[in-house]
């Protein structure tokens, strides 16, 4: 009898757990592809009913046999220990069964749960491409030639002009600084899309980083989030920079942490070899009452120094120089008398140890990115290694490979869609990260120029998958397959992968807007491409790249 009751309970529990109402959705919206699932659930319900009838028949038979046994000879009763053991085993079996059933339900219906509520429009991988008219090879090639290829010459001329002026400006900056007290400024380096030859949308903006170091006898000692100490999730990808004396022990002397008596002196540190007072540490651009470099103080110093340097050399040029953006302190704009202007970013950075990873004082922020934890936390940029990786891989690819072409087309389409429907959480850096991952995953021959259409579809599908999972990992951080030729620091390869889409988990409104913009871009893709190929007279194609988008 107990065995039969237990089996009936298992069947009932199974039916309840498998019932779809056990996991109600927030808005009750049914996906378009649930008819097959509903049919399977009906079949399963029918089979469960048949199983229940069979078990009821078995229970009836067992009850009859039980009565026969009771009328027969006296049956030896089970001992209390055996009853306890049986009850314990029965309860344990039911718990295990329930856990297995709940896990199976969660595994099978996980896509329903992810698609519910605010994310009910998020399609399964590849579903968003159903019904989308994708341009063929000829249309894509014509679009790329007419709309994008002509911008290459403009970028080269602008880079040459900006680099020449920046070198002159920094040389003047060094002459106006006090070499015994001010920071030492090194030569600038070009990074980003302008120097990787894939920027397509105007206005063109050159990104230049300027490494700097403290005056002697001081030095910078950095600490990054993956160095072993625990950092909160919102500080992943950041680090701090401490200003120390070059001869100071990294761990610090105990005299800095312990109050010595009035009649006691530290034999290692004399009064002439102590850390600067608080006001002098602030002169070294540190946060108040600390030894940590303050990004806001650095930018104030840099802006003042650039202004002084420009005043010294302005008579040599027939244009004006000004700071153009308040939220990006390093943004400069050259204004010619003709009314034309050229914008570029000149941003101070600090080198991480002896690598080409840099702490950047200010970084262009998107609506997706969170604010800095504090002004003593510096974001790490891997832009120099990204540029080198693209150059290294390009040498291994076929002639006229389509990797940059795919990125340019995708960047153009996304930019045009955002100009129509408003900004989204996606940035050009996310698009470039997608390309970097595919460059490492796909064989080199797959990037031949005639495979432009296939690789563009791969990038779109990869991006859709990342949006669906809310996971797009930084290409370098946690990537153990980085080519050794780059000399990339091993500490970052061994770090936990950094999810660039983590803010999507926290900002659902931005996530929903980003997904909607992506799907709208897919639907409008052919129309946007045809607009700049078929409907533009050939006589005007040479001047298309002069327009500003």
Report the CATH C-level class of the domain at 119-247 and 281-532: Alpha Beta
* Stretches with pLDDT under 50, minimum 5 residues: 20-32, 75-79, 105-125, 256-260, 267-278, 535-549
**Secondary structure tally, helices:** 16
The backbone outline, from C-alpha atoms, is: extended
Order of helices and strands: HHHHHHEEHEEEHHEEEEEHHHHHHH
Largest sheet: 10 strands, mixed
Structural class: alpha+beta
Number of strands: 10
C-alpha Rg (nearest Å): 33 Å
Give a verbal description of the structure.
This protein has 549 residues and is an alpha+beta fold. The chain has a domain at 119-247 and 281-532: Beta Polymerase, domain 2 (2-Layer Sandwich), CATH 3.30.460. It is 46% helix and 11% strand. The protein contains 16 helices and ten strands. The chain has helices at 2-18, 35-71, 80-108, 110-115, 137-148, 151-176, 193-196, 278-283, 295-313, 383-396, 403-421, 428-441, 452-469, 490-493, 502-506, 508-531; strands at residues 184-185, 189-191, 205-213, 218-224, 238-245, 319-323, 331-336, 341-351, 358-360, 378-381. Strands 1, 2, 3, 4, 5, 6, 7, 8, 9 and 10 form a ten-stranded mixed β-sheet that branches. The model is unreliable at 20-32, 75-79, 105-125, 256-260, 267-278 and 535-549 (pLDDT under 50).
């Amino acid at each position: 009898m107990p065995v039969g009751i237990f089996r009936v309970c298992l069947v009932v529990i199974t039916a309840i757990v498998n019932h779809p109402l056990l996991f109600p959705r927030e808005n009750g919206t049914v996906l378009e592809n649930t008819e097959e699932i509903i049919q399977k659930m009906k079949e399963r319900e029918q089979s469960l009913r048949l199983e229940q009838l069979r078990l009821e028949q078995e229970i009836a038979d067992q009850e009859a046999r039980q009565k026969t046994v009771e009328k027969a000879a006296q049956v030896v009763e089970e001992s209390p220990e055996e009853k306890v053991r049986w009850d314990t085993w029965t309860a344990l079996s039911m718990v295990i069964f329930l856990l297995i059933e709940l896990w199976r339900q969660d595994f099978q219906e996980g896509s329903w749960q992810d698609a519910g509520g605010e994310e009910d429009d998020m399609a399964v991988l590849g579903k968003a491409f159903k019904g989308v008219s994708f341009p063929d090879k000829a249309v894509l090639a014509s679009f790329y030639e007419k709309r994008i290829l002509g911008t290459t010459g403009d970028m080269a001329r602008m880079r040459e002009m900006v680099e020449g002026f920046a070198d002159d400006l920094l040389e003047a900056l060094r002459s106006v600084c006090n070499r015994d007290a001010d920071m030492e400024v090194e030569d600038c380096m070009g990074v980003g899309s302008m120097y990787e030859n894939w920027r397509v949308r105007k206005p063109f903006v050159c990104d230049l980083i300027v490494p700097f170091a403290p005056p002697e006898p001081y030095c910078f000692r950095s600490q990054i989030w993956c160095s072993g100490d625990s950092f909160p999730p919102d500080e992943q990808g950041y680090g701090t920079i401490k200003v120390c004396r070059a001869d100071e022990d990294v761990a610090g002397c105990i005299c800095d942490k312990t109050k010595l008596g009035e009649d006691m002196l530290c034999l290692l540190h004399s009064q002439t070899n102590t850390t600067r007072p608080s006001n002098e540490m602030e002169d070294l651009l540190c946060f108040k009452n600390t030894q940590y470099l303050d990004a806001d103080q650095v930018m104030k110093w840099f802006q003042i120094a650039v202004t002084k340097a420009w005043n010294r050399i302005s008579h040599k040029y027939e244009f004006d120089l000004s700071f153009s953006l308040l939220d990006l302190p390093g943004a400069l704009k050259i204004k010619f008398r003709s009314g034309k202007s050229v914008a570029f970013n000149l941003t101070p950075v600090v080198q991480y140890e002896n690598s080409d990873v840099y702490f950047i004082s200010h970084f262009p922020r998107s609506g997706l990115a969170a604010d800095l934890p504090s002004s003593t936390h510096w974001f790490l940029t891997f832009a120099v290694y990204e540029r080198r990786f693209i150059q290294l891989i390009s040498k291994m690819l076929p002639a006229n490979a389509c990797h940059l072409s795919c990125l340019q087309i995708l960047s153009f389409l996304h930019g045009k869609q955002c100009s129509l429907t408003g900004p989204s959480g996606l940035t050009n850096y996310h698009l470039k990260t997608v390309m970097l991952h595919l460059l490492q995953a796909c064989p080199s021959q797959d990037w031949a120029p005639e495979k432009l259409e296939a690789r563009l579809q791969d990038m779109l599908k990869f991006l859709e998958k990342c949006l669906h999972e809310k996971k797009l990992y930084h290409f370098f951080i946690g990537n153990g397959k980085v080519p050794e030729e780059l000399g990339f620091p091993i500490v970052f390869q061994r770090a936990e992968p950094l999810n660039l889409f983590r803010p999507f988990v926290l900002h659902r409104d931005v996530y929903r807007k980003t997904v909607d913009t992506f799907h709208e871009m897919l639907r409008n893709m052919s129309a946007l491409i045809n607009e700049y190929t078929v409907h533009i007279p050939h006589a005007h194609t040479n001047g298309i790249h002069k327009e500003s988008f």
